[in-house]
Design a protein that fits this description.
alpha+beta; 17 helices; single chain; 24 strands
Length: about 600
């Protein structure tokens, strides 16, 4: 018999009754039923009930150890009586009557309970993450993550992709976030950088002729935490394809995501192909380029209705170059006045000057603004908002960018407060036709709007003939339930187009050669058209696991201050190491003493 186990704690079944078995695991819980001790023993695979009779020699030892002690039991597998069967456990029809017990690993007092539905502070959980990962929910999340990654790899290979590894130590990147820098010992004063993404390397693999690349790639960005973004490092499914159009990339990603989400959840997944929404329409309709399509509310532009209106607050905004957006909510006239007052307070809390509204109830129009509007204006509002009796319409007036932003947040808040967000489903969409350029609000100069390495729609002709602010890029985002899973693009692989694109954003030829010499030189030596995308693994698993916070699906994440409390990172290092790296630490000045 094996020294530690013949079976796992999730393996024994009714067909094993009568066998002598050995299992090892953690003590999940202990119950004393009139002298007979019942123990739930847990391992990675499940849980088995152990029965210890008072006659056994080791019975006296039970009082000397705690829950989460690691123990090996040997005993007979017996059937439970019908009234004691635990239908919630796969092993619930049997129990083991212990004949031998060996303590493999004792525990001291643990900082929080594993067996109970305990909710300790997050920093405590992260400090003792190895304990936190014993909890059933967390354990399942990490197992799901592993299985999702395995399935992603299988499907990618099935679609003709091969996985290649790219460097971890590389040069500083213009990705947009801060780099994590690594000093060079043998090149004093010079630094490597951890990759924010394998972007340039995967494009160079296309230039090298590898055609279909993928990698479950670690990426490193020195940026702040938020619910759907972990500071420090994250993983993405990095992919790139040669000789493809935007539609070819979409077909691969849709097949992959539809299969993964269908396999790992019971929720309804959008049918293929996924909805496509232009960036401009997304901002006008949803107020965001990450719309949650489970929310049925939409915004409409009613600016022209108010241009010559007697309601001066709106008319002045429109005449000043701003806009008025409206959101219709069906069948809510029964809401109390407090609901509307609270929504006004909410809108003001996110930067709005206010939130006007009209409630249509019993043939009446209830609103402080109705008296300033003509009958024709009211008729046009009802038509634009598709108003019926029992509905309400909300208005946001401001500069277009701000009106879209505030309107998008109001739209989301209305749906949350009224329970309008559809449950039990995953709704995907592509956001396409991103603007190539935008105006810098501070300088008024033309700058890149998003990814400077995207191919402009229309190529060199568009750059030579069109207003820069009208040029669209072959750039796209994939969004699920309001969470951006990834950005991608058809790449600008032509040196002439790249030089011109950067010139329009204020970068001369020399600047391009200096900053992006590796890429531009490669493109001069025969580059295929190529494009790709990189969906976030962490965000995919977060959605599948129905977790609101990305740290719940990462085994060992940083906390919100980018600290690993368990391993005490970042930490100070030995002065000898700093001398070898030719580095001196300069502490920030204490502003209070200045």
């Amino acid at each position: 018999m094996h020294i530690y186990r013949t079976h796992t704690c999730g393996q024994l079944r009714k067909g094993d009754v009568g066998q002598v078995a050995r299992i090892s695991g953690w003590v999940h819980s202990v119950r004393d039923h009139g002298g007979i001790i019942f123990i739930d023993l847990r391992d990675h695979y499940g849980m088995t009930q152990i029965v210890i009779n008072p006659q056994k020699d080791f019975y006296r030892e039970i009082g000397g150890w705690r829950n989460e002690t690691v123990i090996c039991f040997t005993g007979s597998v017996v059937a439970r009586s019908p009234e004691t069967v635990n239908s919630k456990l796969p092993t619930g029809e049997i129990e083991m009557v212990a004949e031998e017990m060996v303590i493999l690993g004792e525990t001291e007092v643990i900082p929080f309970q594993i067996s109970q539905d305990d909710s300790p502070p997050e920093n405590l959980r992260l400090k003792y993450r190895f304990l936190d990962l014993r909890r059933d929910k967390m354990h399942k999340n990490i197992v799901i993550r592993s299985r999702v990654i395995s399935e992603i790899r299988r499907r990618m290979v099935e679609m003709g992709f091969l996985e290649y590894q790219t460097p971890i130590l590389t040069s500083s990147s213009p990705e947009g976030a801060r780099d994590y820098l690594v000093p060079s010992r043998i090149h004093p004063g010079k630094f490597y950088a951890l990759p924010q993404a394998p972007q340039q390397f995967k494009q160079l693999l296309m230039v090298a002729g590898f055609d279909r690349y993928f990698q479950v790639a670690p990426c490193f960005r020195d940026e702040d935490a938020r619910a759907d973004r972990s500071p420090g490092e994250f993983y993405q499914l990095d992919m790139e394809m040669s000789f493809v159009t935007q539609d070819d990339v979409f077909a691969v990603v849709e097949k992959l995501l539809h299969g993964i989400f269908t396999d790992f959840t019971s929720k309804k997944v959008d049918a293929l192909p996924f909805v496509r929404i232009s960036f401009a329409d997304a901002m006008k309709t949803y107020g965001t380029d990450k719309p949650d399509l489970r929310n049925p509310l939409k915004m409409v532009d009613v600016s022209e209705i108010f241009r010559e209106s007697g309601f001066n607050a709106f008319a002045n905004v429109v005449k000043g170059g701003g806009c008025v957006r409206a959101i219709t909510v069906k069948n809510i006239s029964g809401q109390p006045r407090k609901f509307y007052d609270d929504m006004v307070v909410y809108a003001q809390s996110i930067g709005s000057k206010g939130l006007a509204y009209i409630v249509y109830s019993g043939g009446e129009k209830k609103s402080p603004i109705v008296k300033f509007m003509s009958q024709e204006e009211l008729r046009k509002v009802e038509e634009a908002g598709n108003i019926s009796d029992g509905d309400a319409i909300f208005f946001i007036a401001d500069k277009e960018k701000k009106a879209c932003e505030i309107g998008g947040q109001v739209r989301t808040e209305l749906a949350k407060r009224l329970n309008l967000i559809e449950q039990g489903c995953f709704k995907f969409c592509w956001i396409v036709d991103f603007p190539m350029y935008e105006l810098d609000e501070e300088t008024g100069n033309i700058i890149f709007s998003h990814n400077p390495f995207s191919m402009p729609q229309g190529g060199i002709e568009a750059l030579n003939t069109m207003n820069p602010l009208d040029i669209k890029a072959f750039q796209y985002d994939i969004v699920c339930n309001g969470i951006e899973l990834s950005s991608g693009a058809i790449r600008n692989h032509r040196p002439d187009v790249m030089y011109k694109a950067f010139e329009m954003a204020g970068y001369g030829r020399e600047a391009v050669d200096t900053r992006f010499g590796g890429m531009i030189n490669a493109f001069k030596l025969g580059a295929p058209p190529h494009g790709g995308i990189a969906p976030g693994i962490d965000r995919i698993v977060m959605l599948i696991s129905d977790e609101p916070n990305i740290r719940e699906v990462i085994a060992f994440p940083f906390n919100q201050q980018a600290q690993d409390l368990m391993m005490n990172a970042p930490s100070e290092v030995d002065p000898k190491q700093l001398r070898e790296l030719h580095i001196a630490v300069v502490q920030p000045k204490d502003k209070k003493k200045e």
